[in-house]
Amino acid sequence: MSRHFRPSLAAAVAALAWSSAAVAGPVTLKIATLAPEGSAWMRALEGIKAEIAAATAGEVRLRLYPAGVMGEERDVLVKIKAGQLDGAGFLGNGIARICPEANALMLPMTFRDYAEVDAALKELTPYLEERSRANGYEALGWTEVGFTHLFGNREVRSVEDLRRAKLWSLPNDPMLAELFQQAGISAIPVPVADVLTALQTGLLDTVYSPPLAALAMQWAGRVKYLNALRLAYSFGGLFIARSSWERLPTAHRDRLREIARTRVADLTAEVRRGNEEALDVMARNGMIRVESGPADLAAFEEISGRTRRALRGRVVPPEADDKVLEFLKRHRAGSP
Prior knowledge:
This protein is α/β, with parallel strands linked by helices. The protein has a single domain (25-331), classed as 3-Layer(aba) Sandwich (D-Maltodextrin-Binding Protein, domain 2). The protein contains 14 helices and 9 strands. Strands 1, 2, 3, 4, 7, 8 and 9 form a 7-stranded mixed β-sheet that branches. The chain is globular.
């Protein structure tokens, strides 16, 4: 082979490789979620799906698997690692496995109100996204799930009331397991998809959820009482495995991130309104709101504090815990 031919051959090989890449076809990202069809969270994913397909002329497509058809979040994570899925819309349990630092924001009774939540997420989101990336995931947006309330077929005002209840526990959730242990509560583990049936059959009589999620899952129609206590704040996120993310051309990555963040920000506002409206709907339908007295609130706060200390360094990274506690100290003191 002559020296003059080698560059031409190299150029031909390069051109063939470029041509093959150009006609490789669209990239389909398979995304799972526990969110049911028709819910605000699912509508947001459908919106992202349609918008990214239009923006990339069909070169990036999303295939969505709603309502837990791919299993609980732990199952979904296994499938992502096996390459069967590319990502998911996760709630607290899944996020905690991708980004343990997020646990520091979702421990019981961490936040008092939405003002604290908004300020904390504004300050800490870059840190959470960096930690997610270090663990092999691209975080495309963080969305509100809301403040969790207790719902049940018995009045629950105190820790002692919870000890007597048939209380739901999300399986394989170390934060909840520690909280219930600190409180001396024996809870009943049931997958999310089976909670409605468990309420219908009487296996459970008390559950916890943000109001909008309780309506979307149809749990609210099976209970009589709501405790007004904001037990914990939870949020969700849309994550893509880094290996799948890197299959996308850079321009498409930027476009997908932009679309997802815009849609997720809109979703947060919608969910917040939806949670308030859900409380109104429940009240109009006869749900009875109960309040915990000062002594009972103090007992909840004391157990929450013990839980935080027990989980520090085990489930909650100390660095993240320090960041959240320092933020709350500054925010409540009125410092920037």
